[in-house]
Amino acid sequence: MVRRLSPFVLSTVLLIAACAPSDEDAASRGAADGAPATPRIALAPTADDALPAAVLGTAAPPAGTAIHYFAADSATTGYLAVPEGAGPFPALILVHEWDGLGNRVRQVADALAAEGYIALAADMYSGRTGSSAEENMALMNEVNQDPAAMVANLNAAVAFLRERPDLSGRIGAMGWCFGGGVALSFGLDGENHDATAIFYGRLIDDPARLATLSHEIYGTFAGLDQGISREQVDGFARALRGAGIPNDIHVYDDVQHGFWLWVDRDPDTRTAPALDAWQRLKAYLARTLR
């Protein structure tokens, strides 16, 4: 059942300006349907002291499959990464940053498949990506005009996953920046699912609104973020507590917006907080989806 829609309030200019430029690989945009043809990702969970190669900039090219999961828009081209084995596996829907679905997010999907999750990286931009701040802003502004369509897109991703015989039945959603705000709004307004993980996405501080959530919330934020202040994060955490929603919210003091997905841009500063955030995320996903 889809709950009553409320308006999306997503990223501000300051929030999104620090997001990554597109790393789109046109060759990986090929249209391919059908789960049976999806290559399998070997199960290889990271050690307690290791980050996935995807966020270190050292991952192999994406090994999954482009998919069309949204019947209402044939141009929407997501990406599916599936673990080896018969399952059943829980699933995660990944929502990209403001530039669109690029290879860094596809590689994170592969990393999550290696952890034992069916990972579907959603496409909110109908197969398009931006290559400049102006293009990214235009794409984001375009889709923000129709929040119901964004919910429908992710509802279709849930429906696609629920058709898989190797799904355990539990599904979560996670996103970064623009995608973090979308993931939170989807947790409030979309098809019922079991987890929402936010990396420096736009927040809500209304306890009554947040009370409609049905599961624990994970949040990772940056102390030097110019778009989301510590006060805003504290207000979000207070509102979750006021609404009775379990949560794991943490602000990492000495890092900037975008630190987790792009550790390789400042490894000396970002590696330690990114590792802590990754271990928190793994524990959260185990609690909510396993």
Structural key phrases:
single chain, alpha/beta, Rossmann fold, 9 helices
Task: Describe what you observe in this structure.
Helix 3 (103-114) links the parallel strand 4 and strand 5 (118-121). The chain has one domain (34-289): Alpha/Beta hydrolase fold, catalytic domain (Rossmann fold, 3-Layer(aba) Sandwich), CATH 3.40.50. The longest helix has 23 residues, at 267-289. Strands 1, 2, 3, 4, 5, 6, 7, 8 and 9 form a nine-stranded mixed beta sheet that branches. It has helices at 13-17, 53-56, 103-114, 133-144, 147-162, 178-189, 207-210, 230-243, 267-289, and strands at residues 40-41, 65-67, 78-83, 89-95, 118-121, 167-176, 195-199, 217-222, 247-252. The chain has nine helices and nine strands. By secondary structure, the chain is α/β, with parallel strands linked by helices.
Write the SSE topology.
Elements: H1 13-17, E1 40-41, H2 53-56, E2 65-67, E3 78-83, E4 89-95, H3 103-114, E5 118-121, H4 133-144, H5 147-162, E6 167-176, H6 178-189, E7 195-199, H7 207-210, E8 217-222, H8 230-243, E9 247-252, H9 267-289
Parallel strand pairs: 1-3, 4-5, 4-6, 6-7, 7-8, 8-9
Antiparallel strand pairs: 2-3, 3-5
